[in-house]
Specification:
heterodimer, A: 196 residues, mainly alpha, 9 helices, globular, B: 242 residues, 2 strands, disordered C terminus
């Protein structure tokens, strides 16, 4: 139990997926203009990464690394298999939500297709394999990572909403000032490094 | 200028993926802690880009239109896996320092973007040159950012001590490295500086009435992005708004 807590806190705060590992920069910069949409994107990412780390964990343990199939030699196919699994999974989740949970689909639906190319999803699946996590700790790692993404994108969106009325010099308008904000957030997140 | 040198010029200068189009931001920020890492990442991406452009261009009449993106992903992922094993075997130190970002070349917008917008419509030879141009443009971008961060952050360039360091114990005067530049925030700061510079150049060009290439990458928001790799059109869902 303690191990799982350390994995969760480590992936959410200490090694924050955006601010220290630089995964998922595209949605972090692109969908952070308003707190509401940022929270929607973050929620969808939490949903997809958690499921994707579970499914990729199962595929890895029972198919790729299974000694009964080709003596466990299929491990080298992990990158190809994971990206296809994730792409199909996102499609599947979208269809499932649309049919059975229309309310949730209304709030997350528009963000789901954007997530396939979010490198954080593939990144988490590969990290789980690299660190030899079990399926459970892999899911916890996925959950922690995606909650870290949610925290970071909501904070950035909050700051950007406040910044909208500031007088920013012409060259720094748009992306540059957002990047500087992200840099300051990354410095702030260094404060968590003593936690574990 | 024939079409091959035109492709090289287009990739390296006119539509430089890092500085002009702002594509592939994740590796750009993550691996540029030193010039050699940036160069290594740039070159491995170039190799994947050239090979996948060639393969996709050869297969362009066979791949059905509705299945093209999944097919591209499989081609790219196969080459990435090959490059990954070659690097693990021949340059283990670079492999260790780039780590997870090597398999993540698969989801680099530049590669799928070039496959979709160039290689799937053009014959093999120009596609190869397009790949070389774009890849070298990316390499130049990453190496430049890596050099800036390495010089400011540790006083070194390609691992060679450029600026003599100050030594407190002997009282020798010298350069005091700004360590934050090789840590995570430094990546954001350097990129912020570079995009501000780019904005300045663009604004000046606009004032003089010149036409400028607009950013198509993720900096302007994935939803608005014209790059098919970003726009969530990986598998058509049938409910995109037309």
């Amino acid at each position: 139990m303690g191990d799982l807590l350390i994995i969760a806190i480590g992936s959410a705060l200490v090694n924050n997926v955006v601010l220290s590992q630089f995964l998922g920069i595209c949605p972090f910069l692109g969908v952070s203009k308003k707190v509401e949409t940022a929270a929607g994107m973050g929620g969808a990412v939490v949903f997809v990464i958690t499921i994707a780390s579970f499914v990729s964990g199962i595929v890895y343990k029972f198919i790729l690394a299974n000694k009964a199939i080709m003596g466990g030699k299929l491990v080298y196919l992990q990158t190809i298999v994971f990206i296809l699994v994730i792409a199909c999974l996102v499609q599947f989740v979208e269809m499932f939500l649309k049919k059975s949970m229309p309310a949730l689909y209304q709030s997350l639906g528009v963000y789901l297709p954007l997530i396939t190319t979010n490198c954080a999803v593939l990144g988490v699946a590969l990290t789980n394999v690299q660190k030899e996590y079990t399926i459970l700790s892999g899911v916890i790692n996925g959950l922690g990572t995606s909650v870290g993404f949610l925290i970071a994108i909501v904070i950035l969106a909050g700051i950007r909403e406040k910044m909208e009325y500031n007088d920013i010099s012409e060259s720094f308008q748009g992306t540059p000032i957002v990047l500087i904000t992200a840099a300051l957030m990354a410095i702030a997140f260094f404060g968590f490094s003593g936690l574990i | 200028m024939n079409q091959y040198t035109e492709r090289l010029y287009n990739g390296i200068i006119k539509e430089n993926p890092t500085f002009v189009l702002m594509l592939g931001m994740c590796p750009t920020l993550a691996v540029t802690t030193s010039a050699i890492n940036g160069l290594g990442m740039g070159l491995s991406t170039t190799v994947v880009l050239v090979l996948s452009n060639l393969m996709i261009s050869l297969l362009r009449k066979i791949i059905p239109d509705s299945l093209r993106i999944p097919a591209f992903i499989v081609v790219v992922a196969s080459f990435v896996t090959m490059v990954q094993f070659l690097m693990e075997g021949f340059v283990p130190s670079l492999y260790d320092s780039l780590g997870i970002y090597i398999p993540l070349i698969v989801v680099n917008c530049i590669i799928l973007g070039r496959a979709e917008s160039y290689a799937s419509k053009n014959p093999p030879l120009p596609s190869i040159f397009d790949g070389i141009g774009m890849g070298l443009g990316f390499t130049v971008g990453l190496t430049a950012i890596g050099i800036v961060r390495e010089v400011i952050g540790s006083g070194k360039i390609f691992g060679f001590q450029l600026l003599p360091l100050a030594d407190a114990s002997t009282g020798q005067a010298g350069y005091v490295p700004v360590t934050i530049f090789i840590l995570a925030p430094g990546a954001f700061l350097v990129l912020a500086g570079l995009t501000a510079l780019q904005n300045k150049v663009k604004n000046n060009a606009k004032k003089k009435g010149k036409k400028v290439t607009e950013t198509v990458g993720c900096g302007e928001g994935c939803a608005a992005c014209t790059n098919s790799a970003c726009g969530g059109k990986i598998f058509p869902t049938g409910n995109e708004k037309e």
